[in-house]
Amino acid sequence: MYPPIQTQKFPLSPPSLSELAQTLHPALSTNYTHSSISIAPCPDLRNAPFHLATQGLCGEEKIADIGGQAHLFPRPRLDRIYSMTEIAHSAMEMSPTKGGSIIGAGAGPFHLVGQNCELATSFSWDRDGDREGIEGVVDNQSYITRMCNGGRTTSHVRVEKSPSTECALMANLYGSLGEPGPVLKITARGRKKGGEKSFTECIRQGLRQVYGEERTVSLGGVFVVKAGTAKYHVMPDFPGDDKLPFKHRGEVEEWLTFHEFAAEVVGLSVLHSADPRGEMGLRMEHTHCFSVGSNAGGHYHGDVGEEEVEYEGYFNTAKVIYRVDMPGM
């Protein structure tokens, strides 16, 4: 059922968390009226407001970039369906006997949902995987965001638990043992006029300004939009054959639906300061969001309220990147 995949592995040598805290401070202070970055114990992410399947973000930290946007444009590759548990176990070299967790952003399992959708991934497996098999011990707290009844307005957005640990087309995943430990705690409030509208892009650009193209620094983590309003897109169902292939990127933008949702919303993010050697075809930043108890979610673009917005995030560095099923490989 799953496509044969090739994987490239690229080891990283990330800076210490203390160095990153200093590195990112100028970018945050330039973009927000109030900001802080420190090294702090990761809160238990299983609890509110996060509602994830993982306790923490520490232990054998790694990132996988699976598929890519070329599997959507110019024509959706409906054969690109992936088992994220299998990718974690094989491509990402994550042992089921140690337990582990995955968070991130990707395209949802359209073949099970019945339509195209956005996926905010969060699942974990316990240390009994050697007895029962990795699929049998998964705690899946992933969410999908979809457009219901063929609509395009915000009233048609639905946020629901994902029915599986599969994804399609593309995904950007942060994997770890899910253990508690020190992470970067980043807070920001009141975006300044002219500043980056995206919290994650502010972080990514801050890394790039310091480390340039010569050194790749990759982060994965979770944040909460605690106050204010942010903009998201939600993919509708795939276009009919009469509207494919997409002729240019502008047609993709017209096909997407865009929405604004007020806090609180949880974001799961993977980002890179640079593409190693410029040849891995990485998606440089990818964040998908969800809310528990309301229909707010989708692909995060940034906040719209400037002085009203407030973020609180927890991130950790990856020690290796796995490029899985890169288009054109």
Automatic annotation (TrEMBL):
Transmembrane segments: none
GO molecular function: hydrolase activity, acting on ester bonds; zinc ion binding
One family name in Pfam for this protein: DUF1907
Keywords: Hydrolase, Metal-binding, Nucleus, Zinc
Statement: the UniProt record of this protein carries the keyword Metal-binding: yes
Annotated compartments: Nucleus
Domain of life (superkingdom): Eukaryota
A GO CC term attached to the entry: nucleus
Main location: nucleus
Domain (DUF1907) ranges: 23-324
PANTHER family: ESTER HYDROLASE C11ORF54, PTD012 PROTEIN
Subunit: Monomer.
Protein name stated in the entry: DUF1907 domain-containing protein
Organism: Aspergillus nanangensis
